[in-house]
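Many introductory courses stop at the sequence. We go one step further.
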Amino acid sequence: MEKRSKLVGLGIVFTCVFVLTAAAWAAFPQPQGFVNDFANVLDRRNQSELQILAEQLRKDQGVELAVVTVPTTEPLDPKEYTTGLFNEWGLGGPEDSGLLILLAVAERAIEVEPGYGLEGVLPDGLIGAVIDQEGLPHFREGDYGAGLTAMAKAYAAILAGEKFEIAEEKKPDLGWLYSFLIFLLIVLLLRRQRKHPPRTGGGSGGSSRRTILIPGPTIGGPRLPRGGFGGPRPSGGFGGFGGGRSGGGGAGRRF
């Protein structure tokens, strides 16, 4: 009897989770175009810039770009919401060449997700670097439109074959530490020499030296791949999405 009660309880829990998830997915808004400002945070200039860029990207590169702002992604987290919305809208068409940029205001989150067809050109690390360098400085100041526009322009340039320069992380200057270690080693060696002076006299003479290796900083690091993407599509306005899929890749940040 007790075992049966536990099974019934687990069944109720799974049913509730399923219903809540299904309700959340069913609540995805319908696309209004390439630019979907459901959170009302973009001005007309930003919307116009993004619209023109998305239309040109679709015409020249065959890539469907959707820029979306939402007040919140609850009850899903921003990443789950982004993947669900991408597949619900079918960004990218048969070639899976879609790109979704989603801003969640309440969560202070930015998510970028590519379709299967763009994962080679836009690896996760490169997507994250664009967010860090082009988006976050604006988002932290509350200028969502400028951040989204700068990011969209950067992704469009990468898809066109241009190289994106990833800023190197500023590493702390450890020169003083190495100098101090060298000084400390010299002092220790001098003290040791005073306590144990070299022997003189008979016997076969000889001397030995010890080599002290001082570690130095490592320069360089892995380089991310670059590339371009081709395949123009006929122009003629939005016309809707449909058929594209996402593998759940991409990158996201909180600000």
